[in-house]
Design goal:
The protein is mainly alpha-helical. It has 7 helices and 2 strands; from the N terminus they run H-H-H-H-H-H-E-E-H. The protein has a two-stranded antiparallel sheet. Strand 1 and strand 2 form a beta hairpin. The two termini are 53 Å apart. The model has no long low-confidence stretch (mean pLDDT 89).
Length: 180
């Protein structure tokens, strides 16, 4: 990505600073593990189906492992040399294996498919975290409702004191809403 002095060559400095750099920095937090997982899974498929020969697959696997081990993305600053982590890995593979072997990893997949898969992987991880937290909250509320089953409180209707109930009963209503 060469940049002309007059900023007429893509990408323009403003685009690099306002779009590409934030994307690159965002990848540090959310992108690396999913890209590595996708690369490994895709490589297994390529070798298992015979699209890539076993020895080439082993070489690619070793190179991917060394890239994961050697590159600390958190220390990298965006320079414009690579649009994102995907292109950094592609470049590293080419440097380590040559264009022909490195290029085999991209056989039969598109960058857009990878982006959608990464989005779903990150979303699934977050949803799992949220569900775990919600289940922990429900368990805590059940425990507290059990402890407070005899603690009397006044229930309100339309902001007015109504009938007596227990704090445990009140918490049970919250639990019911959370579970449905």
């Amino acid at each position: 990505m060469n940049q002309a002095a007059d900023n007429t060559t893509f990408p323009n400095d403003v685009y690099k600073r306002t779009v590409l750099e934030p994307l690159f920095n965002g990848a540090k937090a959310h992108y690396v593990e999913p890209v590595s997982a996708i690369n490994r899974a895709h490589l297994v498929m390529l070798v298992d189906t015979g699209i890539v020969e076993t020895e080439a697959g082993r070489a690619i696997a070793r190179a991917l492992r060394s890239i994961d081990d050697e590159i600390d993305l958190s220390t990298l600053e965006y320079t414009g040399e690579y649009e994102d982590y995907f292109f950094l890995v592609e470049s590293e593979l080419k440097n380590r294996l040559g264009v022909d072997v490195a290029g085999a990893l991209h056989t039969g997949r598109s960058r857009n498919d990878m982006d959608h898969t990464i989005f779903k992987m990150v979303l699934r991880e977050r949803a799992d975290t949220w569900l775990t937290q919600a289940n922990q909250l429900v368990a805590t509320l059940i425990s507290k409702a059990t402890t407070e089953r005899d603690t009397l409180i006044v229930a309100y209707t339309h902001g007015q004191p109504a009938q007596p109930t227990t704090f445990g009963h009140y918490l049970s209503a919250i639990i019911e809403v959370m579970l449905h």
